[in-house]
């Protein structure tokens, strides 16, 4: 299937490894030009080299996406390099574990900043460029926890569920302008994040497959898919939320 995004420009955040990198690689494989970013210079350079070897046009920016001013800078530098912005994949590292009554205000505020406000800022900065083109695709990477919260991941549960509520309403505001906004809700994948959380006891999905799901949601044929929180969890979610 031709996804119709060859020559489009994508910004993928927190993309030096894990699901962010897999998403950038999948978009690049479809011919998109890609801006990637991460805090770690070594991992970012490795991802950049890999994408260049695959034939992709890449802009790599060392940045902490959770800093308030970073989303605007990422969009500005992407537009300066490639002339526009068509696709946004908003991603950020997840918060540490913690049970609901054991986390303090500082931890909650940090989680809300990283996994709610960061994505909102990225969308706000990106939408004007998409409006100008009359076409845009936005995908926020969250977690299957928005459908089935886990007891020991209260910070992630709160922040990511808040993002879903915001995104559902924002998607309705954007769809008439040719811009879609969806969430992907990954379950356990073979990433460093899952190893940090002690995962690995069951089946771990391939991040490359997840990246292809993101690429489809960011495609031209997916023009009527918007306001969706798509579970990519191998049937791990049992709740009917």
Q: CATH superfamily, called what?
A: NAD(P)-binding Rossmann-like Domain
Number of strands: 7
* Number of helical stretches of at least 4 residues: 7
Overall average pLDDT: 94
What proportion strand? 15-25%
Total individual domains: 1
Rg result: 17 Å
Core attributes:
241 residues; alpha/beta; Rossmann fold
Write up what this structure looks like:
With 241 residues, this protein is of the alpha/beta class. The chain has one domain (9-232): Rossmann fold, CATH 3.40.50. It contains seven helices and seven strands, in the order E-H-E-H-E-H-E-H-E-H-E-H-H-E. The protein has helices spanning 18-29, 41-53, 70-82, 105-133, 154-174, 192-196, 207-217; strands at residues 9-12, 33-38, 58-62, 87-90, 136-141, 179-186, 229-232. A seven-stranded parallel beta sheet has the order 3-2-1-4-5-6-7, with helices on both faces. The longest helix is centred in the middle third of the chain and has 29 residues, at 105-133. The protein is globular, with a radius of gyration of 17 Å. The model has no long low-confidence stretch (mean pLDDT 94).
In short:
By secondary structure, the protein is of the alpha/beta class. The protein is built from seven helices and seven strands. The chain has a single domain, classed as 3-Layer(aba) Sandwich (Rossmann fold), CATH 3.40.50.720.
Question: What order do the helices and strands come in, and which of them pair?
Answer:
Layout (H helix, E strand, L loop, with lengths): L8 E4 L5 H12 L3 E6 L2 H13 L4 E5 L7 H13 L4 E4 L14 H29 L2 E6 L12 H21 L4 E8 L5 H5 L10 H11 L11 E4 L9
Parallel strand pairs: 1-2, 1-4, 2-3, 4-5, 5-6, 6-7
